[in-house]
Amino acid sequence: MMRNPRRIPIRRGFLVCALLLAGTVTAAPSAIAAESPSIQQIHGTTFRSPYDGQRVVGVRGIVTSVTTKGSAQGFTFANSARAARSSSALVVFTGAQTPRVRTGDAVSVSGTVTDHFADAAPERSLDLPLTEITAATWTVTGSGPIPLPVLLDHRTVPRAFTASAGGRSIEYHRLRPDRYALDFYKAHESELVAVRDARVVGPTNSHGELWVTARERDNLTPRGGTRYGSYARPNSGRLLVSPLPGTAPLPAADTGDRLGGLTVGPLGYSQFGGYELRAARLGVLRHGGLARETTRTQRPNELAVATYNVENLSPQDDPAKFDRLAEGITGNLAGPDIVSLEEIQDDDGPADEGVTSAGVTLDKFTEAIAAAGGPHYRWRQIDPADGADGGQPGGNIRTVFLYNPARVSVVDRPGGSATEAVRVLGEPGRPELSASPGRIAPRSPAWLDSRKPLAGEFVFRGHRVFVLANHFNSKGGDQPLAGRYQPPQRSSESQRLAQAELVRGFVGELEAKDPLANIVVLGDLNDYQFSPAARTLTGGGALTDLVDTLPPAQRYSYVYQGNSQVLDHILTSPGLGRPDYDIVHLNAEFADQVSDHDPQVARLRPLR
């Protein structure tokens, strides 16, 4: 039996989105006609409507919300009947035409039932559909009470996310809303839903959206987020919150803040994949007081090595971005000795004019760090071939080493280029790089449209240290967590696996020369600590992924769709002993962020 969703009273006035004149929108009827089904019959008991493409007449309900802005206008209407596997509400889509109804109107609607896929045509879509009535006409027949919203919490939303279909579509599987969260959301699609005192698990973004969790107790991080720790458990309580068009924008909220009281609105499906609460009434923002972290300064005998994705930094950025990043490296990261930077753009930024040099970008950044009281860093990097390394078109992003010459020296060895592969040379017990810096296997197809790793040889207090800076290919093209194919295919994963195998092979060459070589592999690997790519790097005990040394609740450096997750890594060889490691949370959990990644630092004591 399905657990009965708890329903809560709400005053009608909170849901009024527009007060409009009565009217209709007309269109030619479809070829197939039906009698007057109920809303529940139109939804059916799967993700696809049994009436998709058919004309229906006289569908009755009460208007619960109205959208009167933009090109996606319309209204939702609902009845008070309940069915275990079918929603009691529907969207009427009117496009750019304003629907002349108001909340509380009793309506009789005719039109064409359409399973709408927001991302693409139905045959190509990766998403699940939202069932609508299009080409609609309606008659206002009176007024009535608005059905009460369904409260979403740990008692109503199942913990299990979705059923497995072996990678195939779940759109025709019979809904089990008592067992699976996706089924539960579909069974309440377009109904009024509510969350109470909802914890923010994904900060307000540039689109004016945020993420909350309806399951308060699931995978809580120490700072108020929801940790993503397994492909099998993508945190079913996560829910996108966006303002219903025509209502006030969402406030700037950080992870761990709360929307006090009730947040209420119809349950939709986002064009970016996943169910969303389109808030007609928003709870009162209560700040949780989240503070940006600062790590400790390294001791004289500790080599501090950091990684920081600076999100497409170019000279065209506002000087404030350079200043804030500089303050982060100087203050929050305490001036590491070596910093691997990811997403440094060329000197003309996203303009695609054939420029690949980044000297202007890096000089501007290192000057900003010095002005903020940080080290007088020098930099080393290799310009990529134009347009060959992916990222923002025209930007020519690359990895770069910053190093503090007062604490560490670089072994400059010429020969590195965009296409020349660095090799491991030297006598047994004393490996060296053929070029420093140099790129690892840059001609390999594993790096197609992706950043090539940068290998550098450094000396700290007489100890030779090899640092391999990485920025693996992105997750672009992967199927969405809340999409129609379950479990979702991670098509981008195979390229990262090939990249990890090349980096792991290079580490093996260094260790073949010296089993206790001091090796650091770091950067934005664009993958989780439990992924095949990460496990390839740690295979055989050659490297330790330092994120695995943290308590599970602290393992995250990025927040995506309300999941606090690991994308950035520092891995070390046995010769570096037991590093002191810290992920420094100063961006990803905040609405006001200078990068979408959190940096991290490891303080190392080379054993030889």
Instruction: Please name the CATH topology of the largest domain.
Output: Deoxyribonuclease I, Chain A
Query: Kindly state the mean pLDDT as a whole number?
Result: 93
Q: What class, by secondary structure content?
A: mainly beta
Query: Helix segment count?
Result: 6
> Low-confidence segments, ≥5 residues, pLDDT <50?
9-33
The CATH class of the largest domain: Alpha Beta
Corresponding CATH architecture of the largest domain:
4-Layer Sandwich
**Total E-strand runs:** 29
Radius of gyration: 27 Å
Shape: elongated
Feature tags:
single chain; 608 residues; mainly beta; OB fold (Dihydrolipoamide Acetyltransferase, E2P); Deoxyribonuclease I, Chain A; 3 domains; 7-stranded mixed β-sheet; 6-stranded mixed β-sheet; 6 helices; 29 strands; elongated
Report on the structure:
- The chain has 3 domains: 12-143, OB fold (Dihydrolipoamide Acetyltransferase, E2P); 150-286, Beta Barrel (OB fold (Dihydrolipoamide Acetyltransferase, E2P)), CATH 2.40.50; 303-604, Endonuclease/exonuclease/phosphatase (Deoxyribonuclease I, Chain A).
- The strands form 6 sheets. Strands 17, 20, 21, 22, 23, 24 and 27 form a 7-stranded mixed β-sheet that branches. It has a 6-stranded mixed β-sheet with strand order 15-16-14-13-29-28, with helices on one face.
- Helix 3 (319-332) crosses helix 4.
- With 608 residues, it is mainly beta.
- It has helices spanning 39-43, 181-187, 319-332, 359-371, 493-513, 532-538, and strands spanning 55-67, 73-78, 89-95, 105-116, 130-143, 150-151, 192-202, 210-213, 238-243, 258-269, 275-279, 284-286, 303-313, 338-344, 378-380, 398-403, 409-410, 424-427, 430-433, 438-439, 454-460, 463-471, 518-524, 544-545, 558-560, 563-565, 568-572, 580-583, 600-604.
- Mean pLDDT is 93; it is low at 9-33.
- Strand 6, helix 2 (181-187) and strand 7 form a beta-alpha-beta unit.
- The termini are far apart.
- The protein is built from 6 helices and 29 strands.
